Amino acid sequence: MQDNIYDYIAKAALAQYGIAQGECCFLAHSGSVTFCIKTQTKKFLLRIHRPISMLYSDVWQRPQVIESELLWLAALRNDTEIVVQEPVKNLQDKWVTQVLADETGEVFYCSLLHWIDGGNILNAQRTPQQAYQLGLLLARLHQHSSQWQLPQNFVRPAYDQNRLQAAFEALYPAVLQELISAEDYKTLEVAACQVQGMIETLGQEQNVWGLIHADLHEGNYLLHNEEFRPIDFALCGFGYYLYDMASSLQYLLPTVRPSFFEGYQTIRKLPEHYLQITEGFFLMALIDVLSFHVNNPQEHQGISESVPYIVKEHVPMYLEGESFLFEKY
Fold first, then answer.
1. Domains in the chain, please, with CATH?
2. What's the CA gap between 273 and 8, in Å, rounded?
3. Whether pTM exceeds 0.85
């Protein structure tokens, strides 16, 4: 699709927020098309919810699902000290804005968020203190999630056994493309089955299961005056709090992971056997990321390097009930 269609959609969307005069600067196109909007007094992030490829399920583009993400952001902004991007309602008092493309009659869904200051720390490893702060941040998110009364018609996808099964099956084309050996895939399947069995024992009580960010890696939080600020809640959904932690832990060095748990536990108590459970979810998070990248040729080398490592270093220890999280990256 032509880039200029997105310029048109952006301008048409901004008009529905009463922002006619504003500098509109394209940022990126991944899960959505994003623009930085600058007016004389404020900055905003405009999102056109149209992913760059079929890597994304269409569930994320449904207006009710988008609105639910915005409702949680608004609640976090109102109820907590966590600095998040506050969503903006349009002139019709709605969170999600519809724009009709003139030529095709296609509907595009857009949302507008207040800009927050901070920088990414992409090229350096987290220090123990930063890992501690990150654990603290996730605990605050989970604390809010476990106490928040969900609005009516709140809809977000779930990170459960079905999600793991779907991710594992989505990884299979990598075997056909010879990025992964059939033997390694089989070994991963044994691990995935054990993780599914573990999930079935957990239940979904509100102390273990609720709304989670699900994608809190270094690209999705900002550092501002030593304060961590979570961004990009586009993949948030219902899931296990320990899965959310495992999802973040995969991007931290093993040596700082104990600090992450320490930070978390200053606010929230962890369940019994939390390390063993987190390690199962760590494997689930890895499978999820790998399956997401299967259709992206730029990630193929990463997949063929990662899987043998996971199969050799993580899976045997997990299957034998030995802990690997503080030793293996």
1. 3-114 (3.30.200.20), 128-319 (3.90.1200.10)
2. 53
3. yes
